[in-house]
Design brief:
The complex is a heterodimer. Chain A is mainly β. Chain A is built from no helices and ten strands. Chain B is globular, with a radius of gyration of 13 Å. Classes of the chains: A mainly beta, B mainly beta.
C-alpha cells in the first residue's frame, strides 16, 4: 500500500481482556517498529523487527506484551490481561532499512475500561 | 540515559512569521536525528533526517540543523502558514541503543491567520 496501515483505528475493551493490534508496513520496508504514546507523554519505543533477525524487544514494558512479524510483512502486537495503564495510542512505523526515515501509521487508540 | 528536551512546549505565532523550534539531547553519541510533525489524531510524518555527520538538511520552507557536540538541533520554519499548525517532535537514534528512537515531548505550534 501507499503508507503504513494500522487496524483497528480504535479499540475499547474491558480490563483483563486480551487485544491484538495489526500493522501493515509499506511494501519493501524491511524494518518495522512499534511505539506507544500515552496521554501527555512522549513516544515510547516498544519493539523493532529487521527482516528475519531476532527482534529487539527491549522496550516491551512487561511480559503481557508480545509481538510477531512473519518475514517482511504484517506485524501483530498482542497485549494480554489488559490493564488501565495500557490505555494509549499504539503507533507502528516502517523504514526501508534501519537508518532510513521511519514512516508512521495513524495508530490504534486503545482504551481500557 | 538519553534525554531529549524540546523548548518551547507550545508556540503561537501570526501567519508569515519565521520561527525556530529547539531540541536538545544529553548524549552526543547518536547516529541521526529526525524531525516529525504530528497532526491531532494522526501518526507522525517525517520531515527531515540528519545523519550525525551532517550539519543541516533542507526541505522547502524547513531547515534543520544539528550541532552534535553541543547536543542541539533546531528546526527553522520560514514564512509560516496556518497549515503548519501541528505538534513537532524531534527524535534521536543513539549509537548504544540499537534501533530505538528516543523522542522529545514535542512543541505544539499554532499559526494564526
Amino acid at each position: 500500500g501507499a503508507g503504513v496501515s494500522q487496524s483497528p483505528s480504535n479499540k475499547v475493551t474491558e480490563k483483563g481482556k486480551d487485544v491484538e493490534l495489526r500493522c501493515d508496513p509499506i511494501s519493501g520496508h524491511t524494518a518495522l517498529y512499534w511505539y506507544r504514546q500515552r496521554l501527555g507523554q512522549g513516544l515510547e519505543f516498544l519493539i523493532y523487527f529487521q527482516g528475519n533477525s531476532a527482534p529487539d524487544k527491549s522496550g516491551l514494558p512487561s511480559d503481557r506484551f508480545s509481538a510477531e512479524r512473519t518475514g517482511e510483512s504484517v506485524s501483530t502486537l498482542t497485549i494480554q490481561r489488559t490493564q488501565q495503564e495500557d490505555s494509549a495510542v499504539y503507533l507502528c512505523a516502517s523504514s526501508f532499512v534501519r537508518d532510513q526515515p521511519q514512516h508512521f501509521g495513524d495508530g490504534t487508540r486503545l482504551s481500557i475500561l | 540515559k538519553q534525554e531529549v528536551t524540546q523548548i518551547p512546549a507550545a508556540l503561537s505565532v501570526p501567519e508569515g512569521e519565521n520561527l525556530v523550534l529547539n531540541c536538545s539531547f544529553t548524549d552526543s553519541a547518536i547516529y541521526n536525528l529526525q524531525w516529525f510533525r504530528q497532526d491531532p489524531g494522526k501518526g507522525l510524518t517525517s520531515l527531515l533526517l540528519i545523519q550525525s555527520s551532517q550539519r543541516e538538511q533542507t526541505s522547502g520552507r524547513l531547515n534543520a540543523s544539528l550541532d552534535k557536540s553541543s547536543g542541539r538541533s533546531t528546526l527553522y520554519i520560514a514564512a509560516s502558514q496556518p497549515g503548519d499548525s501541528a505538534t513537532y517532535l524531534c527524535a534521536v537514534r543513539k549509537i548504544t541503543s540499537g534501533s530505538r528512537l528516543t523522542f522529545g515531548e514535542g512543541t505544539q505550534l499554532t499559526v494564526n491567520p
